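ok trying again, last paste got cut off:
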Amino acid sequence: MRAEARRRILGAIVAMLAALGPAAAQPPPACRAGTVYLTIDTGWGREADRIAEILKRRGVRATLFVANEPTHTGERSLAPAWAAFWRARAAEGHVFASHTDRHWYFRGDAGPGRTRYVSRTREGEEVLDQAAMCRELARPIERLREAVPDAVVLPLWRAPGGITTPGAVSMAATCGLRHQGWTANGFLGDELPSEAHPNAALARRAIANTRDGEVLVMHWGIRSRRDPYANVLDEVIVGLQARGFCFATLPAEGRR
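nice, full thing came through this time. structure:
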């Protein structure tokens, strides 16, 4: 073939690719819509195995905020009876962070370096100083490491209910932990009563409203919800992945 003919053919190919646009010259990015961060708080644990199976099947790794809460088995969530569950999650690539030990609630500061910590179920209340705050945040991770010595633990924490005080956030920072809440569209609604907030509506909202960088929050089951959110979790994940989102664990510095 003459050089001139080859140049004409090459020119035609280049023109065709240019007309088709950049997408024709390279494959679409895997995360074309961006990345979202699923976080799971301890909760009642009733649907824990089912949720874990869905995450594994869909290739989703999450950040697990752990507290030593009561569960449907009668054992607290960080008791030895739950050790195999947490070991399996670590082996699947999930990472961990503190959700406080007792899962009480912060109800206002009591002066510099002091914050009120109150049980919602009337177990008690106390004022935490700096040392007590660090112990409260460190204890769930100590319990976790008794079962999973090689668990990947991030320097993050989440207050129960996401409710903080300026003092609690400052004191936790002195313990080396940064507070991680969830983003505007990240509340999946699994804590809400299913009669007023049916799963179908929650799933549609999550799939439609999630944006790049969203920090999503759910639980390993909520005792009071009649129609468990686990019934639509697979639909939500598939819907978000179909939109082009990838799931990732939180970075060590957290997300805002």
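cool. The first helix runs from residue 3 to 20. Helices lie at 3-20, 22-25, 48-58, 83-91, 130-147, 166-174, 199-209, 230-243.
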